[in-house]
């Protein structure tokens, strides 16, 4: 079978024009085009749906996609499914060698390029002619809005123009000029700004003895360029013009002495054959370089990112795609800004660039001019040399703006692509492209290209494990692909087992001269061994951050870790971000790329003494303990023990309970890790102190199970170290946690143990809070008399102790006890007082709880309108907070109210939603309450 993309989409049983197979309708043709653009690679269903329906696929998209795939199989006579397969990574259309015109076209162009490098002009003509014969028109013209087609279409069109240049150049070298005038006249009319075709037309006319026509062709080009772009023709055209003027009307020189239109510097490295992904970045970069230049403003694109992220690959592929816009040459220089060798000096680089430009334009018998001694003079000379030329410069691996600035053109005709691990924020008049790790689909596509789609299909789980280990870094994926290619007997899972070992992952990600850790080392050593003290200090910050490589730290926490004032730490972190050694996902928060974090962890173990590592970890632990104390106090004042020592930098001050809760949610992953590490540190007390003060988070999000895990670890640590104070406070909090989860027996056991420990301290307020929690547990067990007795004692103790601590919790227990014994008037009085306190505190969670229970009380008093007003407000608050347990609890109470007032359909909806939440989030008590409510409705 034969598939055609270079023109209208065609499908033929064979490689002939006969028996062309109809594929329709429009959606199925779009589906086939998308699969062919990714031939032999799995295409995820989401990408296919995006091609078919854009950003908003219909609800029936999955079913429609399956129907279209079935129709496509039928139209391709693919009943067995051998050609169009479903794989774990998506749908794959198998295309054999020679079946797709685009693949044949690319192969022919590569062969023509190879022949061009050998100056085998007969082969250049043969291969380029064969490639061009496959062209039937604008690729996939019938799909103008297909996102997947935009970049390939642009690249194929640019490659076709290059192949046309090469074929005509071969004709000129072979002395076959007749018949070229009509073709070149058409090409210059179709591409009025493409200087190479105009230069070739002038040369053909010159050889045919039509000097005036050649000069007229030059004038037409010059007039167009001046009017459209405000520029003069480039050096290639000027060389041909000089030849025409010098030779006069006499017969032209032999072919062997005629200057070639291709006699320009073409220094670009070869394209990456398996370059994958980066479609948006590639389109934006090529669009910038192809756009008409602005007056006297050079086009400078800075492609930045961490080592191994694929900066050079993107820059080189983009440069090849647009090089026909720069007919006066393409220059390439590795600036060695990050590497084992010293960075190249701009003075020396200017000499290299000026020599290349001078050699190209000097001509026979005119030696190049001597270069100035001063760097500024050389830079001025480079700007002069580029003023009337259209040259593309690729400056790879730049260290900083000072290295690049002298190499920039002064006008807008030439353009520059700079790749760097630095952001080069101080480079003027530049457009920046910062590369992130590849997304999952791009990673799959690249790995498929590197090791073959068949191996991925055989071991999709191993493929996913490898992608996770490589963390979106193209270099890591290429190393993985190279290892797999050299070991055909290995499955992807076999390699994944080694690469997944975090102790040796960086060593496993190396093959030959490619190594992830060596690439990272060039960035790190550049600042560690710098002459700049600030860079050396940033390198130490990089190492110390490696102690917390898997986590995102805010600038204040990082300042405590680094033992530096906040502003100083921010400068260090921003310096690391500028050279892509850390990422900054949001303002003033910092994290490592997964693999870079592993490298940093290795460096801190190797270069920092154990005492320094332990001291840094302790500083961070103390800072989080004090910060969590501040958050807990903002949510609910407590007499929980506080640390005596001050933190290395000030802890945050929270303006209200919601501010504190938001901070806890953001910092929870690091807090959990601090708790875990503190248990085995010189300060195990930090484990229970942090867990106890984490109540600020748990009031709203106890149901996630995170607090339970922290408290369990804290209790074990306190018991192992004989810390009675830690045990008392941890048991108190653990009892509250069990009670919130309706684990009433466990709650009572923990609270009674805590109460026994607090008896020795004589703290009436602590006893009151524990008794209030016991009252709640007994209420949930249905032991309402005991609940009321405990609540009344607790309230008396709390009143004697005075102060705000525990007041809300004890008052809530008392009000709840009255509600359960159906003393609705007493309950109403206490719930109204409770709600007033909660609102005055600004604590939304407590307010929502009070409103829900107030609504239940008003139900008992048959005050329907007031009851639902309270319940609706409670539900609104809890949904805003994302408190799933609270939402379900309010729904159960609302269901009870709806049923009480005869609104059975509304009650059923509330109970069903509550049961669904209880099931989805593992809260058995709420699931049971929802189901019990539904059962009662059935009995009604």
Task: Explain the overall architecture.
The protein is mainly alpha-helical and 940 residues long. The chain folds into six domains: 1-174, Orthogonal Bundle (Arc Repressor Mutant, subunit A); 177-256, Serine Threonine Protein Phosphatase 5, Tetratricopeptide repeat; 279-363 and 387-434, P-loop containing nucleotide triphosphate hydrolases (Rossmann fold, 3-Layer(aba) Sandwich); 440-517; 530-608, Arc Repressor Mutant, subunit A (Orthogonal Bundle); 822-939, Tetratricopeptide repeat domain (Serine Threonine Protein Phosphatase 5, Tetratricopeptide repeat, Alpha Horseshoe). Helix content is 62%, strand content 6%. The strands form five sheets. A five-stranded parallel β-sheet has the order 6-7-8-5-9, with helices on both faces. Strands 12-14-13 form a three-stranded antiparallel β-sheet. Strands 1-2 form a two-stranded antiparallel sheet. Strand 13 and strand 14 form a beta hairpin. Helix 5 packs antiparallel against helix 6 (147-173), helix 6 (147-173) runs parallel beside helix 8 (195-207) and helix 16 runs parallel beside helix 19 (474-486). The longest helix has 27 residues, at 147-173. It is elongated. Mean pLDDT is 88; it is low at 250-262 and 359-367.
Please describe the structure with a list of short key phrases separated by commas or semicolons.
elongated; Arc Repressor Mutant, subunit A; 940 residues; mainly alpha; 6 domains; 5-stranded parallel sheet; Serine Threonine Protein Phosphatase 5, Tetratricopeptide repeat
């Amino acid at each position: 079978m034969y598939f055609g993309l270079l023109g209208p989409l065609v499908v033929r049983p064979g490689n002939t024009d006969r028996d062309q197979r109809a594929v329709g309708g429009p959606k199925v043709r779009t589906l086939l085009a998308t699969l062919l653009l990714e031939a032999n690679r799995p295409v995820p269903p989401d990408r296919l749906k995006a091609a078919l329906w854009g950003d908003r696929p219909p609800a029936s998209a999955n079913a429609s996609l399956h129907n279209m795939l079935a129709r496509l199989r039928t139209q391709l006579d693919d009943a067995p499914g051998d050609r169009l397969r479903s794989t774990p990574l998506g749908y794959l259309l198998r295309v054999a060698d020679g079946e797709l015109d685009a693949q044949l076209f690319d192969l022919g162009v590569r062969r023509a390029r190879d022949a061009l490098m050998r100056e085998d002009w007969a082969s250049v003509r043969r291969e380029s002619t064969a490639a061009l014969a496959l062209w039937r028109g604008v690729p996939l013209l019938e799909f103008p809005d297909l996102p997947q087609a935009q970049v390939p279409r642009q690249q194929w069109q640019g490659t076709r123009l290059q192949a046309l240049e090469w074929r005509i150049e071969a004709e000129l070298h072979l002395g076959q000029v007749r018949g070229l005038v009509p073709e070149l006249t058409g090409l210059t009319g179709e591409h009025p700004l493409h200087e190479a075709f105009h230069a070739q037309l002038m040369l053909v006319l010159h050889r045919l003895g039509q000097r005036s026509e050649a000069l007229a062709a030059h004038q037409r080009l010059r007039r167009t360029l001046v009017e459209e772009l405000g520029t003069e023709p480039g050096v290639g055209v000027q060389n041909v013009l000089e030849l025409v003027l010098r030779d006069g009307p006499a017969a032209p020189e032999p072919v062997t002495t005629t200057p070639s239109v291709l006699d320009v510097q073409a220094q670009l490295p070869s394209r990456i054959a398996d370059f994958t992904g980066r479609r948006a970045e590639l389109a934006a970069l090529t669009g910038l370089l192809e756009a008409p230049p602005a007056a006297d403003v050079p086009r400078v694109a800075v492609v930045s990112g961490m080592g191994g992220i694929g900066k050079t690959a993107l820059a080189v592929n983009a440069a090849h795609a647009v090089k026909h816009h720069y007919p006066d040459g393409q220059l390439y220089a590795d600036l060695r800004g990050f590497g084992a060798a010293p960075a190249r000096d701009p003075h020396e680089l200017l000499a290299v660039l000026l020599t290349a430009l001078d050699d190209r334009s000097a001509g026979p018998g005119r030696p190049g001019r001597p270069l100035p001694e001063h760097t500024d003079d050389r830079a001025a000379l480079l700007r002069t040399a580029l003023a009337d030329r259209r040259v593309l410069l690729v400056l790879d691996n730049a260290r900083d703006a000072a290295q690049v600035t002298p190499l920039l053109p002064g006008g807008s005709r030439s353009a520059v692509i700079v790749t760097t691990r630095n952001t080069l924020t101080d480079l003027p008049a530049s457009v920046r492209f910062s590369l992130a790790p590849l997304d999952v689909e791009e990673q799959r596509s690249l790995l498929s290209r590197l090791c073959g789609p068949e191996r991925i299909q055989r071991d999709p789980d191993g493929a996913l494990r490898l992608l996770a280990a490589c963390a979106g870094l193209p270099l890591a994926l290429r190393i993985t692909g190279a290892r797999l290619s050299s070991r055909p007997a290995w499955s992807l899972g076999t390699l994944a087992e080694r690469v997944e070992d975090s102790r040796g992952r960086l060593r496993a990600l190396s093959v030959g001269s490619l190594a992830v850790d060596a690439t990272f080392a060039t960035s790190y050593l550049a600042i560690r061994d710098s002459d700049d003290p600030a860079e050396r200090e940033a390198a130490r910050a990089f190492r110390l951050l490696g102690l917390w490589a898997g986590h995102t730290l805010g600038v204040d926490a990082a300042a405590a870790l680094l033992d530096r004032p906040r502003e100083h730490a921010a400068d260090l972190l921003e310096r690391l971000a500028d050279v892509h050694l850390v990422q900054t996902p949001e303002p003033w928060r910092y994290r490592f790329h997964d693999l870079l974090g592993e490298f940093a962890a290795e460096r801190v173990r190797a270069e920092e003494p154990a005492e320094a590592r332990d001291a840094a970890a302790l500083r961070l632990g103390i800072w989080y303990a004090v910060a969590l104390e501040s958050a807990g106090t903002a949510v609910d004042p407590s007499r929980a023990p506080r640390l005596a020592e001050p933190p290395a930098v000030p802890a945050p001050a929270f303006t209200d309970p919601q501010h504190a809760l938001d901070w806890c949610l953001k910092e929870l992953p690091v807090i959990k890790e601090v708790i875990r590490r503190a248990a085995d540190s010189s300060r195990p007390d930090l484990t229970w102190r942090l867990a106890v003060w984490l109540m600020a988070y748990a009031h709203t999000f106890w149901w996630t199970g995170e607090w339970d895990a922290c408290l369990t670890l804290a209790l074990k640590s306190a018991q192992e170290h004989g810390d009675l104070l830690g045990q008392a406070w941890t048991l108190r909090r653990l009892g509250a946690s069990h009670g919130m989860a309706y684990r009433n027996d466990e709650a009572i056991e923990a609270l009674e143990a805590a109460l026994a420990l607090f008896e020795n301290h004589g703290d009436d307020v602590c006893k009151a809070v524990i008794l209030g929690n016991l009252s709640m547990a007994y209420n949930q067990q249905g032991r309402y008399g005991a609940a009321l007795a405990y609540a009344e004692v607790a309230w008396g103790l709390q009143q004697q102790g005075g102060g705000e601590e525990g007041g809300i919790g004890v008052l809530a227990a008392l009000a709840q006890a009255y509600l359960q014994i159906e003393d609705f008037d007493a309950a109403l009085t206490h719930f109204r007082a409770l709600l007033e306190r909660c609102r005055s505190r600004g604590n939304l969670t407590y307010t929502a709880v009070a409103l829900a229970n107030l609504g239940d009380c008003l139900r008992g008093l048959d005050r329907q309108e007031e009851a639902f007003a309270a319940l609706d407000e409670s539900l609104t608050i809890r949904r805003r907070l994302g408190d799933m347990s609270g939402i379900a609890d309010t729904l159960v109470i609302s269901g009870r109210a709806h049923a009480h007032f005869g609104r059975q359909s509304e009650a059923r909806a509330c109970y069903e939603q509550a049961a669904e939440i209880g099931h989805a989030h593992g809260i058995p008590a709420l699931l049971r309450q929802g189901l019990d409510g539904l059962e009662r409705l059935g009995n009604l």
